[in-house]
Amino acid sequence: MSKKQVSRRQFLNYTLTGVGGFMAAGMLAPMVRFAIDPVLKPSASGEMHPVVEVSKITNTPQRFEWEVKQQDAWYESMVQKSAWVYVDKNDEIVALSPICTHLGCVVDWSSNEQYPDQFYCPCHGGRYTKDGVNVPGTPPTAPLPIYEHKVEEDMLYLGRAHDRGGGV
Amino acid sequence: MLQKIYDWVDERMDITPLWRDIADHEVPEHVNPAHHFSAFVYCFGGLTFFVTVIQVLSGMFLTMYYVPDIENAWKSVYYLQKEVAHGQIVRGMHHWGASLVIVMLFLHTLRVFFQGAYKKPRELNWVVGVLLFFVMLGLGFTGYLLPWDNKAYFATQVGLEIAAATPFIGDQIRTLLAGDPEIVGAQTLARFFAIHVFFLPAALFGLMAAHFIMIRKQGISGPL
Q1: What whole-number distance in Å separates Cα of residue A102 and Cα of residue A125?
Q2: For residue B58, which of A155, A160, B93, B217 is within the disulfide window of CB 3.0 to 4.6 Å?
Q3: What ipTM did this prediction achieve?
Q4: What is the pTM of this model?
Q5: Residue A30 touches partner B, C-beta closer than 8 Å
Q6: Cβ–Cβ of A34/B83 closer than 8 Å?
Q7: Alpha helices in chain B (DSSP H)
Q8: How far is Cα B94 from Cα B108, in angstroms, rounded to an integer?
Q9: What CA–CA distance (Å, rounded) separates B149 from B152?
């Protein structure tokens, strides 16, 4: 007896809303997917690029530059990349990104007389120790990213730079 | 939940009469295909509006990728169609809709003409309708150039020559449209893009508003 009665008007309202909603969704779905495509595109795999002969790498960080072909949708260009490269105490090659983790300026090795043997950022005085870890009390809150690297036939190849979490 | 939000707003703003005025009015019998099937001819105006809505939406989304520059226009169209998900569908909607809207508009015009629905007191709405037709043709003409392929380029070349055939001020009109007395190029494309996405749509919305307000004011014309 407690069956709910659906009036003619209600039935029509539901049907029209349903059909209208279906049509609107059919129209908007491809457009929305089209618009959000950049978020859903898989990120390009990290290709390795030859940078410098291993024999030229010393214990002191040196800045090396190389060019990468960048495909920006329909625009193709060469982009300059750079890294601070040295050999650490365990004879391992370390390649650090020169981009300051504070606000993205470019850091320099040992450029400030007060802080020799540290990476120094001229913009806001951010500092990092030789292994790229930020010095506490200076603006950066994370260490310098490290490049993926491999050595092949006495040549150093670098890939993408990865953020290291943590920081001091 | 939705009802509560609606009631909350309605209590403060009294919005019910606003949409009631638009939504609640009886469809006269002679306009209702349920009574006389031949009344489907009254659908063409609404269909024109429906396709126009699709054109506006798909056009807005296309500008997320399209760039109006002769170096990159074609490349960006190629990219959005081949590389972006559903790009072919969204561009397809805009491409086919552009033709469909002209067809619908034409059928609507024929209905109004052969029913004599343009007669007093609706002469002014006929005039606005004809202006809408011209704006639509303008949108078609300017949009045709945007992909910047060979077909687009030479079609625009022809269109500009037609404009240049205007007596006395033909050359000036041509230069005004193309942005240069001789070249069909960088300035032409930038201009056509601006006209296509800003100027003509603005005119279109204004004229459509006038068209619809006049229909409500005067009501639909009576049975034949």
Answers
A1: 10
A2: B93
A3: 0.87
A4: 0.85
A5: yes
A6: no
A7: 2-13, 16-23, 43-62, 73-82, 87-114, 123-145, 150-164, 170-178, 186-194, 200-218
A8: 20
A9: 5
